[in-house]
What we know:
The chain has 114 residues and is of the alpha+beta class. Helix content is 14%, strand content 25%. Strand 2 and strand 3 form a beta hairpin.
Amino acid sequence: xxxxxxxxxxxxxxxxxxxxxxxxxxxxxxxxxxxxxxxxxxxxxxxxxxxxxxxxxxxxxxxxxxxxxxxxxxxxxxxxxxxxxxxxxxxxxxxxxxxxxxxxxxxxxxxxxx
Length: 114
């Protein structure tokens, strides 16, 4: 069982109504800030298309599905409120945390083909 950094009872309504997203345990369990995120075409009607990573994940880490989970976007906003400003970005957008450690900057995104 995973020990999450923030208790769900402590969540605030920072980004409600955006649907689901994927995020890694580096954010929700280890407590790292979001360092990289992108929005791809949603998998289904509840998926927002957003994917959130700390930027510290290795290929081996990402290959282990136990290190990823589906969350409501509001959950990840509670872990890192800086993402809220990005949520209106269209599919195909990607961002990484800038050198100031606070703001995100747009980066090129190449969707992965299945």
